[in-house]
Design a protein that fits this description.
Order of helices and strands: EHEHHEHEHEEHEHEHEHEH
Shape: elongated
Helix content: 40-55%
Number of domains: 2
Radius of gyration: 21 Å
Structural class: alpha/beta
Distance between the termini: 21 Å
Amino acid sequence: MIAIDSMMVCLDLSEIDEKLVAFTRSICQRLPVKKVYFVHNIKANELSEDFQKVFGDVDLGSEIEGNIADIVAEQFAHAADYEILVSEEPNTEVILADIVKRYEVKLTLLGKRTSDKSTGALGTKLLRILPCSVLVLPEKANFETARVLTPIDFSDASVHALRLSKSLVDQLNLNLEIMHVYKLPTQYFPLISEEKAVRKAEEVVKAKFTDLQKRHREIQGVPYSLIRAAGKSIAERICLQLQNGKHDLLVLGLKGNNPIPSLSLGSVPTELYNMDIDIPIWLVYSEAVIK
């Protein structure tokens, strides 16, 4: 059973905040959540001199906290125990990572605007530095979830994401699909038959699925798709599968094997995050990786 002891919701005082708070309420209504932290960091060093001159005597932190409190009162309606945290630090990523550690946050919710409105630079940094799983909510996403897609590469991280997905769909009565994207060594064509190479590659992957189902019997019977990359990146193939299958949630495992945090996210999650995908993306670390 999936239960979240503590959850952090990152607000930036933009139009997406109301949607984030409402989505948090939706999560709390579906899953057991003990405590929610609504957080915002004021980068005081980025405030202009004109602002300081005109509003220098204003307690900006209190004003922002009051604004967030109004949104929470309207959109959250005490769906769970919560606290509002407003800080004034020069580095937002560091203070948010500190909150995750201090309050033992298990899941962070991030909003994401479309690429024509935001570069997504802060979000990418947070994905790399936050020591917890992250749920990304695009501004055009809806709250209805019926179909979940979990791509796997048979690594421990992807198997963890798959098992979490299975627990989630069982708990909420959803549908789950597994996919694997494989690539062929095209540099050897036409020295070897392409048809034979495809057949052999799929035999190998099917054998891996069979072994996975033997080790994790809870995923037996879950439908899966074998997709050839065929000139596209893995992330592009995942995106196409999302569109064709009309999925509502994407769950990806994060490895975190590299001791350098900035290199632990992986190219596929990074590429998917930077795409304009209109469904939530749940990027999950295992407890072992976080520790």
